[in-house]
Amino acid sequence: MTYNANTTIIAAISARGGYTERAFKMRVLVVRGSLNNPENICRGYPCHLDARDPDFRLQPRDIIYVNSRPFIRVEELADLAMTAFIQSLITSWTGVSVVKPIQ
After folding, report:
1. What is the DSSP code (8-state) at residue 21?
2. 65 lies in which domain range?
3. 103 lies in a domain?
4. What is the DSSP letter of 30?
5. Which of 9, 20, 75, 87 has the most neighbouring CB atoms within 10 Å?
């Protein structure tokens, strides 16, 4: 993204299309400085929305990193299991409640 003097974390993330569905919004990492001696700045997403913490301005060559949620795989597996359970429940219930076909 092109840098300008007023660029903030939220502005940069918004300019790139916002957070993905899998993003871990509670921890946004800003890497500042050289790659040999980086300064890591960890920012929390809710603080920006609640106005408890001002949206901080980026400096040239800052890198913003947003990881996936830590338990995304578990969430996806739980969702699949729940969907399969509900589908089997509905299938067995409708199979029992259907009127016998007319001969």
Report:
1. T
2. 9-97
3. no
4. E
5. 9
